[in-house]
Design brief:
Shape: globular
Structural class: alpha/beta
CATH superfamily: Rhodanese-like domain
Number of domains: 1
Mean pLDDT: 92
Radius of gyration: 14 Å
Number of helices: 4
Number of strands: 9
Low-confidence stretches: none
CATH class: Alpha Beta
CATH architecture: 3-Layer(aba) Sandwich
Strand order of the largest sheet: 1-8-7-2-4
Amino acid sequence: MTGGSYKADLGPDEVWKRLQDGAGSVLVDVRSRAEWVFVGAPDLSSIGKQVVFAAWKDFPAMQVDPDFAASLGAELAGRGVDRDAELFFLCRSGGRSAAAAAAMTAAGHPNCFNIAGGFEGNRDENGQRGKTEGWKVAGLPWRQPK
């Protein structure tokens, strides 16, 4: 499935493969600080990479950071990330990350992808996340902060 204002939506397994194979590829987790701390975060240490944490909206206000693209662009440049690098955006279920991918595409990063299903995915029939789709359900590495 193609996202209109960013490169495409990709499943977690495809993203993991591209992160492993692409030396300059980057995973950007756009969830809030509270989510990183209390829900967990992807762990890329086994492939020698680090997640870039950049909240699209932060708790408790949950309003879009108006400086998101500029701040993330500066962070990526500071890490030596090429503007043409593949950037994979992750949130809880895929909504905020799609918006962030679109914003970074508009800011001049042409290879932005949304991770379909996000970290925990949508709710199942019992109203619970993390049961049907997403990074965790795919069995990809993640950690719970200490």
